Amino acid sequence: VSTGTTPDKQKFDYVQELLNQVTPRMRSVSNYTLIDENGVYNTATYTALKKFKDNFSLSVNDKVGGYGPLG
């Protein structure tokens, strides 16, 4: 169920849902805290994306690190 109020947020809360499902299953990930699936890019989402990228060796796009947490 999407909680986003606009199509943009509805798409992003899907990304948050996937992060919550995939990242904790990786055995090398420690201290992963589930994030709110609300379609908002904030500090918790930034941290989750960073952990995902670091643990899955995804250095193709460093924009997550470049943008930083927004709120």
Structure in words:
By secondary structure, this protein is an all-alpha fold. The protein contains three helices and no strands. The protein has helices spanning 7-22, 43-55, 63-67. Helix 1 crosses helix 2 (43-55). The chain starts with 6 loop residues before the first helix and ends with a helix. The model has no long low-confidence stretch (mean pLDDT 75).
Short description:
With 71 residues, this protein is mainly alpha-helical.
Helices and strands in order:
Blueprint (H helix, E strand, L loop, with lengths): L6 H16 L20 H13 L7 H5 L4
Helix pairs in contact: 1-2
Features:
single chain, 71 residues, mainly alpha, 3 helices, elongated
Mean of residue pLDDT values = 75
- Kindly provide the radius of gyration, computed on alpha-carbon positions and rounded to a whole number of angstroms: 12 Å
Counting DSSP H or I runs of 4 or more residues, the number of helices is 3
Percent of residues in helices: 40-55%
Please indicate the percent range of residues in DSSP E strands (runs of 2 or more).
Answer: under 5%
Low-pLDDT windows of residues: none
Biggest sheet features:
none
- SSE-based structural type: mainly alpha
Please tally the β strands and state the result.
Answer: 0
Span between N and C termini? 24 Å
Listing every helix as H and every strand as E from the N terminus to the C terminus, the arrangement reads: HHH
Query: Globular, elongated, flat, extended or rod-shaped: what is the shape?
Result: elongated
